[in-house]
Amino acid sequence: MAALAFGHKNPDTDTVVSALAAADLKTKTGTETKAVTLGECTPETVFVLEKFGIAKPEIVSSVAGQDVVIVDTTDLAQLPDDIAEANVLAIFDHHKLGDLTTSSPLEMWVGPVGCSATMIYKAYKASNVEIPKDLAGAMLCALLSDTVMFKSVTCTEEDKAVAADLAKIAGVSDMMALGMEMFKVKSAVDGATASELVFRDYKDFDMSGKKVGIGQLEVVDLSMLDARKAELAEEIKKVKADGRHSVFLLLTDIMKEGSQMLIVSDDASVVEKAFGVAGDAEVWLEGVMSRKKQVVPNFEKAFSAL
Amino acid sequence: MAALAFGHKNPDTDTVVSALAAADLKTKTGTETKAVTLGECTPETVFVLEKFGIAKPEIVSSVAGQDVVIVDTTDLAQLPDDIAEANVLAIFDHHKLGDLTTSSPLEMWVGPVGCSATMIYKAYKASNVEIPKDLAGAMLCALLSDTVMFKSVTCTEEDKAVAADLAKIAGVSDMMALGMEMFKVKSAVDGATASELVFRDYKDFDMSGKKVGIGQLEVVDLSMLDARKAELAEEIKKVKADGRHSVFLLLTDIMKEGSQMLIVSDDASVVEKAFGVAGDAEVWLEGVMSRKKQVVPNFEKAFSAL
Prior knowledge:
Two copies of one chain form a homodimer. The first copy, chain A, is of the alpha/beta class.
């Protein structure tokens, strides 16, 4: 039985593409591995896969008894419920270290870089395995997506060098044009329900014993969301009602380089503790574009001090 | 303030040497880092440091508020009590993934290899930093120690290739002679108290909510311990009395390639569940030399089924 490679729930482009690349690399280095996802691909990911002619991975929910390769997370809340019954062979990630544990030694490629695809690129190089042209294109998109076209504070010089090499392998001559095309697809809000928008890139966290949901919507211009904001605020109230202490929705303007954050919380003072800006229903967070590096660490500190 | 590099409590040679090497590498790549330990060095480690003219690191117990580099473990029980208040920059390890979590992204070099020093060797190579001659000799000893001179099941082809290169850098012409010299120091039991022998390489684990201690003594010939066995059995009873469900002491014969395991447990049936060999006070485990790869995973499964 082939090993399974997958990333987090509510998969984004980096998670899906990194699972595909990790499966390719592991298979070529002797461990037959198949990429799967834990949920539906976003429109952005569908665009990327179609652009480079890659089939959409199938969706699984149970992994008990399987060998697995995990990408883009080490948080139990973002993995299948029966992950403890799987045998973790390898992890490729660029986030803080979460609460996943394993019962055997494993391989981990983890670094403070802009996306998981960058870590897999490094593993390809270290294993002297060539990156296929189609995957290189998709990995480039994963990198452009996760780093918001190099603008995120999580983006490193290494990410930029990796992007340049991936573009070369993929035969992409204008990567910024590719990025804008992709972000236009990602930003599209017409035709999507409020629930689809909230869950487009949504994660649950355990913060000092409290369940906290944080979603993020990246748009090329915040005004695109003006007509939907009331609806989104209603929607996160519903999400909160399902046993959560707080739900935050970041509406990130990738051109203005900041985020409007919609708030629903049992104790909204946590927002001021975390960011020094008070607000009951929403606040503007200047320069805040990265959930992982800017929002989650601040909230974790603030929740631990509640 | 310099960052601190350290490994687990009850430091062995791989932990101490890997902390020294990680500190050297981090310092040379731009993050001033100082190696420390969480406890006294063993006679084996003192022999290695003296052999290659390296100063013994100082001992620390608190790391709150510091930047830290962790080697050779990700288990909270094996780290300083205030590790949650430190900022983890990097981890170099070759064990299963433990329960340490971080609040920021970090660098992790983790692989299923014979020792942490092998992972740091790989990081040196990837960073194009030269390994100093003295550290190369000490890293070779860490590798020979942790892989029991390449005999442990944890030892990989990669470890052997790394050992050959480290020997070249260090100018060691006969690495097996160096290994035997080191193991003779490690095996010495004369003049050591029973407590010193039990804690020479001892670790506590949380297994399905039960506190379990596992020590290991490696000797070149088990008969060296005949005169001390009754005393060691008494000693682990004392250790167990301090709130533990079980304490196991592996007396590993590196030439016969197996371990005599001394047992004191609230439920010794766990030994048969784990290894298929029954015994109340002791059992011989043929071919069992690795606590990490053979003993801990078997006990974790057995304890979860108690």
